[in-house]
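USER: My hope is that you can spare some time for a protein that puzzles me. I am handing you a single protein, as its sequence and its fold in token form. Walk me, if you will, through where the backbone shape changes along the chain. The protein I mean follows directly.
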Amino acid sequence: MRALGSGRERAPIYPYPSRYGSTRKQRTELDLGLIAMYPIGMQLENFHCHVYFEASEQQRAHAVLAHVKATFGFEPGRFHTGPVGPHVGGSCQVSFSAADFGKFVPWLMEHRDGLTCFIHGLTGDDILDHTAHVLWLGKEWDLNLSVLRS
């Protein structure tokens, strides 16, 4: 397909395959399914941010979390050096509200020091909160969703 008047090919809307489907039709069906599960007007009020780290990155993770506390006053949760819940490696959780989202997340994009941050909303449905209401900063990690199903 060519863009009108440009003489250049238009990039596909979904150029890369993903676990959600490789075609626009498949992704549209996913979007429609999510809309059915989440009526328009539903608003997320609270979030978790999990800072992920490898064993060799623990010092950097402590520094990032100290910077979060100094800048925003958010108290980091327990520092887990191994798997806990659905999180398969080292992690530490920070809780924040929707009112802080617009300042905290862009700040985190710049100050995460290369660590992966997994951000998800809190609706009370752990499965959907860890699959549908998510944002990844950095490399996406696998999650052990089976612990949420039990």
